[in-house]
Structure formats: C-alpha cells, structure tokens
Design a protein that fits this description.
The complex is a heterodimer of chains A (450) and B (311). Chain A has 450 residues and is of the alpha/beta class. Chain A folds into two domains: 178 residues, D-Maltodextrin-Binding Protein, domain 2 (3-Layer(aba) Sandwich), CATH 3.40.190.10; 212 residues, Periplasmic binding protein-like II (D-Maltodextrin-Binding Protein, domain 2, 3-Layer(aba) Sandwich). Chain A is built from 20 helices and 15 strands. In chain B, a hairpin with a 3-residue loop joins strand 1 and strand 2. Chain B is an all-alpha fold. The chains are: A alpha/beta (450), B mainly alpha (311). At the A-B interface, helix 4, helix 11, helix 18 and helix 19 of A face strand 2 of B.
C-alpha cells in the first residue's frame, strides 16, 4: 500500500490519508490492511494461545534462537524465520511484496535509516495500536526517536550503533601518535601517520552513505526534514554537512584515507596488519573485529568519537535497527506478541549474547554490561565508552522517506569526488540534486537547498 | 534408396487427394497441435511479459499519489534522460570496440583450427571454447580478483616487475577491463560458430582451388570467407544484442569499483536499479522497451546489409 492522493481512492486508504494529514492516530484506520487487529496485552495473550504461524524476515543472527525460545513458551505459535537478504536486498523484496499486495512477512527487520520509507508509505502497523508507546522510557532516546515517526511508533528497537573511535593502539604507540579527541587532531594524526609510514592510513574510505550521514549527524547537521509525510526538504550544505565535508575533504584530497572498501577481504587484512589504523563506526563493531580480525587481538582499543568542538561530547548513531509489523500481516496480535518478546522481553538478552549492542536502557546500564572487560580489547571496559556515546547522540536527526534509494546512488554522485580526490561538497550537492529529483519523481514535494 | 522413399509417397498422395475436399471447409488444426505447446510457452514467457511491459510503460506508479495513466510521458522522459544516453553511449563504445576484436579473434582461431596445419586441433578447439562453459558470474568474479591492485594478479605483476600498471577498475580502464572479460568468455562460442560453418564447405572446392594453384590465403579469401558470411552476420547480431544487454559483468564488478561503475552504467543496469532499488517499475519498463526496439532495429540493419552483400 502506498500513500495515495485523492486520485487513487482505495478502500480505507483515503480515510487513512486524511487521518495522516490531520495528524490523528492511525489506529482508527488499521482495518485497511489484512487482519483487522488492535488490542491490549490481554488480546495479545489470547492471540498467542491460538494456533498461529508467523513469518519473520530478519538477518540478525539472534532471531533464530529467539524464535525457538518463543515457541517453547507459546507452543501454539510457530515462528518461521526467513533470511530474505541483508539490508537492501531484503528491502527490495519487502517493497515488492508490498507492491504485489501479498507475500510480505508478519514481522520484518528494518534498519533505522530505512524505516521512514516503509512507515510513511503506510506499509507498517503503528505499534500504538498495541499500547507499545508505553515502552518509550525503556529505550535510549536516539533509538526511540528513530522509530517514532509522524506521531506513530513503527518498530521496536533491537540494536543500536552509537559511534565510537576504534583505534589500533599498537600502531598509535609505535609512531607516538596521541589518540585524537577532535576532528582537527584526527586530520593531524592522519598526516603524521601517513608521513611516518606511507603504507599506513588513519582509516579507509571509498565513500559510504551510512558513514557520511552519521558524520553529518554528529556535526549537528539536519539535512533531511519531512513534514506531513510528503513535504521533504534536503540541504546537504547546511552548517553540519559543510563542517563534515570540509574536514573530510582534507583527508580525501590529501590521499590520507586508504582506498579500500569496507567489508572487503582487503579491509579485514588492513585492519589486521595495521595499515588501517582507526574506524569511526557503530558500537556493534567489537564482535566483527573479534571474528573478522582475530589476528589483531589485543591491538585495538575504543575511544570516544572525536568531536567538532573540544570537550563538547557529541555522537551519532551508525546502523542498527528494529523490527516492525507489516500491514499485510493477518496475525497482527500474535506478531505483536513476538515482537514484544524479541525486543522488549527475554529476546533482548539473546541479542546481546549474540553480539548485538542493545538499545534498552536497563541492559546498557547494568553493572555486568558496563564492567565487562573485553579480552580482545586488552581488558578495556569498552562498554563504558560505548554506553556514554549512546547518551551523547545529537538530537533532532531525521532520515528521508526514500533514504534507501538515496543511499544506493551515493556512489554515483559523491563517489566521483572520492575517485577524483576532490572536494566532497560538490559531491554532496550532486547527491542532493539526484535525491531531490527522485523524490519529486515519486510524488513528494522536495525542496532542495537552504 | 529410391524404393524406400517412393513407396510412402505413393501411399500418402491418394489419401491426401481423397481428403482434400472436406478439408477445404474444415480448418486443419494438425499443424497447430504440433506447434501448440511451443506457442503456449512462447506466449507465456515472451509475448505476455512484453505486452505487460508495454502496458506498464504507459503508467506511473508513485510512492505518493499512486498509479496513474501517463500516456507517452515515460517515453518522452527517456529521450531526455541524460543518464540513459550516457549508458547507451557506453555500451555503444563497447559494441564498436569489443565486438570487432572478439569476432576477429574468433575468426582467426576458427581458420587456424580449420587449416589442418595445427597440431592437436581438438585440444585448441576445446581450450578456446572452455571459457564459454564458465558461468559469466564465476568468470567475472575470477577476473575481478585478478584485477585487484593490492592482492590480485595485477598486484603480483607490479611487485614482480617493479612496475605500476594502471588500475583496471579505474574510470579510464573499467570499460576495457569489462571488454576483456566478455572477449575471454565469448571468443570460443563465436569460434565454434565459424568453425561449424567452415566444416560444411564441400571439400571439392578445396580440391579445385588446389588444382588451380591457389595458395592458402587465396583459399581463405575466395572460399572460406564468403562461405562464412552468414555465420559472421549471426555472430555479429548475437554480439550486438549481448553488448546492449551488458549487465552481469559490470554488475558483479560494481562492489569492487563502486565509484566508477555507477548504477546507470549500462541501460540494463539502469533499468534494474530503477526497478529494484527505486521502485520505478514503469520507467524501467519503458527503458527496457526502448532498448529492445533499438537492439531490434540495429540487428535488422546488420542482417539486411549482411545478406545483401551475400547475393
């Protein structure tokens, strides 16, 4: 289902559009989808005591186990976990199922950056229908803000990715470089390191949309604004965006970042042999380092993300996501029960055990979590740094309601600045234009520029 | 021989004669019964999708606003779409450069194997053909690793000789690198096409040429090449279609060269990305139809020119 203007009247959809425009609660119209269900905890409990089969699309490794545990607790419910691809691959399938009008799962994992696309296009159930808005205080501000869109709650957060600076201490010690606390110091460290050993780089970067938006987020940029679901403004030359691009361009133009793409074999090798000395990345990274870069155990440490103003702690979310209930679902109450179990109930522990960085305040602040000494990181209590980061996330960030496509054309536009080693600002402008063109093409009213 | 073939004919003809009268009134569906299964599949897998694409191309389905009939607006948009023309330009350059190189190599290989002067011709024949048996996806991945400037074959060559080869996946070289992969994949196929055509040339022509004192190159020019013309026309048409439909190789190399292989690198990639990451199914269908028509027109021109010369 898509947001339809009065031209494309369909059963229930017109009423829904009106409701959106008036800012009313969506619960009144949730009957537009498949199984018409809203309800409180009792209704959910009743649904879980009925023979039901739920389909869940997720790629997070913990979900399989969570589903098994859930089935044990609710023997009448069968949960089929399907890995329909990671990230974009799954969104494509999800979007196709939405377009086809059938074939979507009951519950789907959706990252924060992609959530507006599905939420604002009326494909997801507003979890207020089940009273899930009362969970707000259980999650970090930034993750709850990410799932709260247009007056509704469209997913329960599963993991989060407050950013931090992961650095190879062995390399820093070898060349006597101090751990940078500001981005200016970071650029200086990049120059110092590369001058000392031309095979070593402060980090790798070949242009990554998720990293770029997170960096702009931390710099206080608010390039994307959406009002009334369809009025979008994009300004990738606002103060924060410029601050990031001006600084990062120094690294790109000066050949100070390794031209290796993240998640490639070369990347893992670079992280292991010290030729990629730092990563500014989400708090879910430790598990990836432990499994993918086992050789460098003991070399890596975590520090707070460098800041733009000395001493003014600031951070951003990078990656992470939650799970949502699809409008197409015929078992919304049972799906809500599973969702709650997975992301609010016992499932959160399974997620953490599998290496996910939680979004639940209680877990983040538990003594056990905070005082965990990671052997990989030389016994450092890394969670103290990471949890602090989750508290320092800059407020006010929004993604576009077509961020998935926009990110997919990032390298067509900003990528050119990377391959020609030139100013990123012009790349951001090209990205803004291409994104705005797409938005207008899709019927949004997009205002590009300041 | 004669008795065998004449007997059935004699038996059938009177029967046909007897039946001829009633058949004039009633349509004979026997032929249709034979091609029916084919036509059914043909209609289902070819006609229906094409018709559906044409239908789609007259609409515009937006995330906001829903579906609406837009007439030829999508076609007008394609004609003014810079990304489309860039991608078409790219595959056209590819066509003009890569196809002749590939066909000449294939021709040379076919003539060499057919010349009877090669030891172990069967070995060369299968050796050159073998890459065609490797799936394009595997071939591209393999070449992608070799093209690596840090850990791949290119890196090894650079290290060994102390030189610095240009990055095969850089902006300037990426099209040539893809051309190299496609050539490697399809030389064997075209070689086999040409070789098959060479094998059906009656040997008495060669004997006559030998009696006339023609040397080897004269035989190639006057006998083999003219006989090969239909095969060359077919090979060219297949290659044109292949070039315009270029998709696998650049799409698989994209993760290795995401800043140089853009999402609209070839018309097919453009249509694919519009459709599957941009949800612009209607516009993607329009591009597909425009490309289909363009390919058909060019293939037709080549076919007409090829057969005209033949006469």
């Amino acid at each position: 289902m898509k947001i339809r203007s009065n031209k494309g009247l369909r059963r229930g959809a017109a009423a829904l559009t009106g409701a959106l425009a008036l800012g009313l609660a969506l619960s009144a119209c949730s009957s537009a989808g498949g199984g018409a269900e809203t309800g409180n905890a009792d209704d959910i409990a009743k649904a879980l005591d009925t023979e039901t089969t739920l389909t869940v699309w997720a790629w997070a490794p913990a979900v399989e186990q969570i589903a098994k545990d859930f089935e044990k607790e609710h023997p009448k419910v069968t949960v089929n976990v399907v890995n329909a691809g990671t990230g974009n691959d799954q969104y494509v399938k999800l979007q196709n199922a939405i377009k086809a009008g059938s074939g979507a799962p009951d519950v789907a994992q959706i990252e924060y950056y992609a959530l507006p696309q599905f939420a604002l296009s009326d494909s997801l159930v507003d979890l207020k229908d089940f009273g899930f808005d009362s969970f707000a205080d259980e999650y970090t501000d930034s993750t709850w803000n990410s799932v709260s869109l247009d007056g509704g709650v469209y997913a329960l957060p599963q993991d989060s990715g407050p950013m931090a600076l992961f650095y190879n201490k062995a390399v820093f010690d070898q060349y006597g470089i101090a751990v940078p606390t500001t981005w200016d110091e970071y650029v200086a460290a990049a120059k110092q390191l590369h001058a000392a050993d031309p095979t070593k780089y402060i980090t790798n970067d070949t242009g990554d949309a998720g990293f770029t938006t997170s960096m702009i987020w931390q710099a206080g940029g608010e390039p994307y604004k959406t009002e009334n679901s369809t009025d979008v403004s994009i300004n990738l030359q606002d103060e924060g965006s410029k601050k990031f691009a001006d600084t990062w361009s120094q690294l790109v133009e000066g050949d100070l970042v390794s031209p290796i793409s993240s998640w490639s074999d070369e990347w893992y090798k670079g992280l292991a042999d010290g030729s990629i000395a730092t990563l500014t990345i989400g708090a879910w990274m430790p598990g990836n380092l432990e499994s993918g870069v086992a050789d460098a155990a003991g070399d890596w440490r975590v520090a707070p993300m460098p800041t733009w103003e000395p001493g003014a702690a600031a951070s951003a979310e990078n990656g992470g996501g939650g799970d949502a209930i699809m409008k197409q679902s015929k078992n919304k109450l049972a799906a809500a029960g599973f969702l709650q179990y997975m992301n609010e109930g016992e499932g959160t522990q399974t997620s953490i055990a599998a290496g996910g960085f939680p979004s639940t305040v209680a877990d983040l602040n538990s003594d056990e979590f905070l005082n965990y000494e990671s052997p990989y990181f030389g016994g450092q209590k890394i969670n103290q740094v990471l949890v602090q980061s989750s508290k320092d996330v800059v407020k006010g960030w929004q993604y576009l309601p077509f961020q998935v496509y926009s990110n997919s054309i990032f390298n067509d536009t900003v990528g050119k600045a990377y391959s020609s080693k030139s100013d990123l600002n012009s790349g951001l402008e090209a990205w803004q234009k291409a994104t705005a063109d797409y938005g207008n093409e899709q019927g949004f009213t997009v205002k590009a520029g300041s | 021989m004669t008795t065998v073939s004449q007997d059935p004919t004699a038996a059938v003809e009177p029967r046909l004669g007897r039946r001829a009268a009633p058949h004039k009134a009633k349509r004979d569906w026997t032929g249709w019964k034979f091609i029916g299964p084919f036509m059914l599949i043909f209609a289902f897998v070819l006609i229906a999708p094409v018709v559906y694409s044409i239908y789609l191309s007259f609409f515009k389905d937006q995330l906001v606003g829903g579906n609406s009939f837009v007439g030829l607006a999508n076609y007008i948009q394609v004609l003014g779409d810079q990304k489309f023309w860039e991608s078409l330009g790219r595959v056209s350059i590819f066509l003009v450069v890569q196809v002749p190189i590939m066909l000449l190599l294939a021709l040379f290989a076919a003539l060499a194997i057919d010349s009877a002067r090669l030891h172990f011709p069967a070995f060369f024949r299968i050796g050159i053909f073998l890459p065609y048996a490797v799936p394009a996806v595997v071939a591209t991945l393999m070449w992608g690793f070799m093209y690596g400037v840090r850990f791949g074959l290119v890196a090894n060559i650079n290290d060994f000789f102390g030189i610095s080869l240009p990055d095969p996946l850089s902006n300037a070289w990426v099209l040539a690198s893809i051309g190299n992969i496609v050539t490697w994949e399809f030389v064997g196929y075209n070689m086999l096409l040409f070789y098959a055509a060479l094998r059906v040339i009656p040997t008495d022509l060669y004997e006559a040429a030998e009696l006339d004192g023609a040397n080897h190159f004269r035989v190639i020019r006057s006998i083999k090449l003219p006989a090969l013309r239909p095969a060359i026309v077919i090979g060219t048409i297949f290659s044109i279609i292949g070039s315009f439909q270029l998709f696998n190789e650049p799409n698989i190399l994209k993760p290795l060269a995401k800043n140089t292989i853009v999402t609209s690198f070839t018309p097919n990639m453009y249509a694919y990305n519009l459709s599957f990451s941009g949800q612009q199914y209607n516009y993607a269908a329009t591009i597909a139809i425009v490309m289909g028509v363009a390919t058909a027109v060019i293939a037709l021109i080549v076919q007409n020119r090829g057969s005209r010369k033949e006469v």
